Amino acid sequence: MTAPGTALRSPALRARLRGYALFAAVALLLLVVAPLALPAFRLDELAKYLCFAIAALGIGLAWGQGGMLTLGQGVFFGLGGYAMAMYFKLHDADGDLPDFMVWSGVEKLPALWKPFESPVVAIAAVVAVPVAVAAVLGALVFRQRVRGAYFAILTQALAAAFVILLVGRQGLTGGTNGLTNFYDVFGRDPEAESTQRTMYFVTAAVLGVLYLAARQLVKSRFGRLLVAVRDGEDRVRFLGYNPATVKTVTFAISAGMAGLAGALFVPVVGIISPSLLGVVPSLELVVAVAVGGRYALAGAVLGAVVMNYAKTEFSEQWAGGWLYLQGALFILVMTLAPKGAVGLYEQVKDAVARRRTPERPVPAQSVQGEAA
Amino acid sequence: MDSLLNQVPIGLSIGAVLLLVALGLTFTFGQMGVVNMAHGEFIMAGGYTAYMLQDWAGSQAVLAALPVAFAVAGALGWVLERLAIRHFYGRPLDTLLLTWGVSLVLQQAARDLFGAPNVQVVAPGWLTGRIEVLGGALPYARLFIMALAVACVAGIWLYLSRSRPGRRMRAVMQNRQLAEVSGVATARVDQLTFFIGSGLAGVAGVALTLIGPVGPSIGTYYIVDAFLVVVAGGLGQLRGAVIAAVALGMLNSYAEFWTDASLAKVIVFAVVIGFLQVRPQGMFVLRSRALT
Amino acid sequence: MREPFLRPLAAAVLLPAALLTACGGESGDGAGGGASGGSTIKVGVLHSLSGTMAISEVTVKNSETLAIEEVNAAGGLLGKKVEPVVEDGASDWPTFAQKAQKLIKKDKVATVFGGWTSASRKAMLPVFERNKALLWYPVQYEGLESSPSIFYTGATTNQQIVPGLDYLKEKGKKKLYLVGSDYVFPRTANKIIKAYAKANGMQILGEEYTPLGHTEYSTLVNKIGEAKPDAVFNTLNGDSNVAFFKQLRSAGFDAAKLPVMSVSIAEEEVKGIGIDNIVGQPVAWNYYETTKGRANDTFVKAFKAKYGTGKVTSDPMEAGYNAVHLWAAAVKKAGSTDPEAVKKAAAGLSLDLPEGKVTIDGPTQHVYKTARIGVVRKDGLIDEVWSSKEPIKPDPYLKSYPWAAGLS
């Protein structure tokens, strides 16, 4: 970000290097500055936002790049979260029944729970189960060319049904309470500050890796095909590709990300419950992505972190106001800046660039000015 | 066996409720591709209209509220269309998120205006009785809702098939561009459609005061079901909406009778998802050669 | 198009991180505000101020802040004023856990008053236990819990469900139908009811659960009509009650024809259900606005003066109010706000509160409560028609009831 070097003549290369430098700066901030500057519980909160950011990244992929508005991402978040929590519960119970089963009158460990005694199975299931569910659902739905609003409503109904099922099978799932009160997270006390710190680093690292991977995916051939499907599904079909496959794969990937996010959420916050997974939380995630900017993966991350942060802060100040603010913000973003904060930023940047130097690339300074 | 028959009128009455809440959506969604998440809050507006009218209409408020709620909710919908939705044509998914924002604001506004607890709407005395049908009791309130649903469907049918604006509405629904080049003022038709669609939600809201709570969150209880009816019935299809609502009502009543309420809901969702596998565009489809 | 990916990411993380850091800064000085030093004693008040539970929890928050003001008006505690730090649990259980953590670690509060749903309590429990902090939970609940970090000032099952059943038995109701929302409290309550019925020669004709927020009860009413029970035991929650009572009544079942014993309907909810639909129906609680006694007159008067004459007081509100006064008395007795000292001082502590004499049971950290059955009157308030002769000793695990063996 220093003065444009003489050695770096190609603007493209310079832009890319600047990109990496910024990514490194963010990584530095997340991995070094934040842990040093923030008290433990704030760091824990940030870790929670980062979990949502991981799920949002998946939505950015499915919706922003692929045009599939999924309003049921909470389902996959939940599947991952419960898979992880089931392992913790069984581990704590150490051969006995988990506490909630005792007070729900369950006498024998249900067969569904058996495999989760193994941490390997549980961790594999965190990703595998959401991916499998999304793949099957996607294969069925996309092959029938259910799309657009239909798909959105179907996924919303899925979220509603999932929550009812979770709540209704209390002996199996803990009902509305969900699964909580873990004593041992891979040999550590989940409430201890050191554990929370570790979990923060793990979450930040996962987010970083997934972000880079998603970005790579978007830039690949597959990514271009995905955008093509979003912009003209029929045309892609006429060109000899099968849009259903492209969409199914993407949907499954986004579900896997949500599952991973849910699994990380469990040790970070110490609970997984249906209140996180229904229609409204799923929509809120999408909202966050829209506010951040759906067409850029970073927008999804930005939106999830900022919106969740704002929600926490705002509800501390003026509880009822949050709904007004969220609603109003949303109406404004959708009408005035449908590309979200990132889109707005791009617009401003282009305008500035046009006025200053019509032909040359944007100087880095203006970028910093916007970001700060 | 008695109780098995009993479930028939119950299924029909659940169907009538579903039909009332979904009817307006069929048109706003069907004609304009607008996924109006604030539809539930228009239902709420209808309920509160009945509540407000109690001051002068007393226990007959429910009856008096029907036309007023139609106008109030319709006006809300019209304002929403004018201010925001008209900028969104061709972006149905964006309207979904936009109207969700609107629904949040309306919910909180209701909370601030009327308070968070449910309010009391007294049913008229002549609606408190019941008749015996097929060995079970069918409350007048339920009969009233069924009659109202039938009246709304008949009204809409007449409007669509016999009136000039109704014909225009169908024209826009079938092919917007063609209607436009044929001289139909589509913007005007859209306004009217949104007014009527939202107004119907208001009517539904009044009817629901007879059987359910009247509070800031009632919209959220009905919105998902309403969309399922529309999706299963096919966009903009009056026939489809009627059949889907009755079918889902019946399914709901029998599924709940044989299992329990939680499982019944899940079964209904599963059946709709399964059904869309067979008929991805719903029961009835507007045939079109156009590409999306 | 240029790559818009990375730069916004920087903003994404820089902005909130910077804000968080700013917030973090305050916590340094916050340390002095708590139990040690400082001019005030901070206490947390953690309820849902937004979301679906706000409707109920805000009223409890109100009565708790009222009680805190009363404590301050009476000279405060240990020479200091009590300062409430109000937080929003947002009807979301993980949020409860995180806000509890914030109150304990950042604000360093001496204790927290909060929660309503069992789910929120279960979510907060590990936070309080691991941090050796103290929570006062003010709502009736399903029992089977006795955390060393929680004081329960609402009824446990043997102070509400069991007396409700005793009352029905006394009235000769032998055949019951159980209706509840699908979550922990109704399921546990119904388990207890079934065991009670078995031991007392009563019959359970049906047991039905509906999802939270369910509003379609015609099928259920039909099932009840078929089964012809003597009474219904109702553990539905929130808006479902409105739909249930409206639809039950329009099917011809009123209080005379079919009594419905409810345990989650208080003065607050009656209006929304419609007084006509529920008038004459029995409810089971430990307190009503109409409960006799000087302490209650003071409470009701103070509450209406502060929040408006149109407001009613109810059992959970009173339990929240009690929690604050009990804690204050324990702090005075202990001469410290240290949780361990407070717990020690609280054991056996007895106060005259709106519901009558309330004593803390040391071993369970629940309170002795008088059970009261009330009947909804025409103006929406509730009249007491039956009460236990004396405050009932809390027994969250129902150990003293032979028929309940094997339940927990």
From TrEMBL, chain A:
InterPro entries: ABC_transp_permease (IPR001851), ABC_transptr_urea_perm_UrtC (IPR017778), LivM-like (IPR043428). The keyword Hydrolase does not apply. Pfam families: BPD_transp_2. It comes from the Bacteria. Keywords: Cell membrane, Membrane, Transmembrane, Transmembrane helix. It is found in: Cell membrane. The chain crosses the membrane at residues 20-40, 46-64, 71-90, 120-142, 149-168, 198-214, 249-273, 285-306, 318-337. It is a multi-pass membrane protein. The keyword Membrane applies. Its main location: membrane. This is Urea ABC transporter permease subunit UrtC. It comes from Actinomadura fibrosa.
Automatic annotation (TrEMBL), chain B:
It is found in: Cell membrane. It comes from the Bacteria. The chain crosses the membrane at residues 12-34, 61-80, 92-110, 140-160, 192-214, 226-251, 263-279. Pfam families: BPD_transp_2. The keyword Amino-acid biosynthesis does not apply. The keyword GTP-binding does not apply. It is a multi-pass membrane protein. Belongs to the binding-protein-dependent transport system permease family. LivHM subfamily. This is Urea ABC transporter permease subunit UrtB. It comes from Actinomadura fibrosa. The gene is urtB.
UniProtKB/TrEMBL annotation, chain C:
It comes from the Bacteria. InterPro entries: ABC_urea-bd_UrtA (IPR017777), Peripla_BP_I (IPR028082). Pfam families: Peripla_BP_5. This is Urea ABC transporter substrate-binding protein. It comes from Actinomadura fibrosa. The lineage of its organism: Bacteria, Bacillati, Actinomycetota, Actinomycetes, Streptosporangiales. The gene is urtA.
